[in-house]
């Protein structure tokens, strides 16, 4: 069947038509932007380049045509991320339940090594229900592990030493930046307090709006000190509310105290040996803890599996999708051990697609992740990962993890997709300038800016600025949709369908906001395309019918 699949992909795509649906072809010219209504902008990423002049993934078009009156099968999608709000109104019916586990009896009924794992597993918690909210950066772990060895000349491995030196350099850069951030946020808090004290003589109760501050400035045009404080407070109200200052202060302090502290043991709460992959007796079954701090997983779950035809109009990919929640992320970098074990858990417990929007610049145990990817391939499970938000050309900077190759060499498996981020501008700004890119590592692009999705709290939604995490989630949704409606297709086949069926944009785009030298969008990834659900389903239907 693999040879037949390769043969089919070598035939021009014009032959891949199911019924009378027309394939969305290559886009070679910049397209004028139509006026985007608030309603359309809310879910722009589901729109269509032909029908709406928006470079979305054409999910609405797919549902209005190909999937109309069709039924799919339930599909389990593992979301390897932070905690997820399992009680959210648009997600509460979209979670996988482990039917082989008796709830809360403190017995591992299915003998899978995880007691009372009803919706998944929390790898960053302990048996007492505590979560590790701040962990080391991987560069910190590298230094912690090898500082004394290289200082004492105990290791002669030149490649390992080169990686150590790179980590040491990156550590110094991050430490300097963290110290600057700490000073800056302290100054912001100090300046805001000064302006509050000054303005207290004009507003006795301490409450005022920007409009009231503007009126005060107009009434005292000759008072330069008042003008200064009123303007400064207006900016604080807009950009630095008290809650933001508080959370930024905590983040800045913890970055120095924990993320960059080589003396900090970030497994002390979990109490496992992070250097031993066989030490698996850790974590807990609470997958929705500390949601006020760990919101990312809920954002991604909403993009994949929010109820269709809901009151907010978000619309996930399918009501057939069931989310398996696997929490491994907090503030800092994920441990390779947790990544590997979470992949294996997902595979062993029935997930057919894994969403993994995590990323870091170094990897102490990439071999564990490679083995987990190969294990997933053996069990026919597709893994989707975000490209990262560092604006790196990964053809040059080829150490961004997790990936599926060593030094831009041969891929270790054929079930892994790495996704970059695109925007809703069908012009020179189509590329999201924060996204990593490169024809070796990045397989495909998907929408990743100004995303509206679910947030923790029962009826909570918001726009998020986006990132390749969103691009990853949307690609995961397309993969799950294909697996639901065409279950005879393999993970490898679906990977290539997603890559080959995307819409190719060939016009030049900026790689930075102020870039005068532009690059054709189709040169930024292996496929040169943006994921398209409509095209993917046409191809999936054709290939499925040949098997």
Please outline what is shown here.
Keywords: Hydrolase, Protease, Serine protease. Belongs to the peptidase S8 family. This protein is of the alpha/beta class.
| CATH topology (fold) name of the largest domain | Rossmann fold
Count all strands and give the number: 13
- The largest beta-sheet arranges its strands as 2-3-1-4-5-6-7
How many domains? The number is 2
Low-confidence stretches: 1-16
The major beta sheet can be summarized as: 7 strands, parallel
Family: Belongs to the peptidase S8 family.
Pfam families: Peptidase_S8
Active site: 81 (charge relay system), 296 (charge relay system), 469 (charge relay system)
Keywords: Hydrolase, Protease, Serine protease
Itemize the secondary structure elements and their pairings.
Blueprint: H1 2-10, H2 38-42, H3 59-64, E1 75-81, E2 120-122, H4 138-151, H5 158-199, H6 210-219, H7 224-239, H8 242-259, H9 296-305, E3 321-327, H10 336-348, E4 353-356, H11 366-378, E5 382-386, E6 416-422, E7 444-447, E8 449-455, E9 460-466, H12 468-485, H13 491-501, E10 503-504, E11 508-509, E12 519-520, E13 529-530, H14 533-545
Parallel strand pairs: 1-3, 1-4, 2-3, 4-5, 5-6, 6-7
Antiparallel strand pairs: 8-9, 10-13, 11-12
Helix pairs in contact: 4-5, 5-7, 5-8, 6-7, 9-12, 10-11, 12-13, 13-14
Give a structural overview.
- With 547 residues, the chain is α/β, with parallel strands linked by helices.
- The protein folds into 2 domains: 307 residues, Peptidase S8/S53 domain (Rossmann fold, 3-Layer(aba) Sandwich), CATH 3.40.50.200; 122 residues, no CATH class.
- Helix content is 36%, strand content 11%.
- It is built from 14 helices and 13 strands.
- The protein has a 7-stranded parallel beta sheet, sandwiched between helices. A two-stranded antiparallel ribbon has the order 8-9. Strands 10-13 form a two-stranded antiparallel sheet.
- Strand 8 and strand 9 form a beta hairpin.
- Helix 5 packs antiparallel against helix 8, helix 6 runs antiparallel to helix 7 and helix 10 runs parallel beside helix 11.
- The N and C termini lie close together (7 Å).
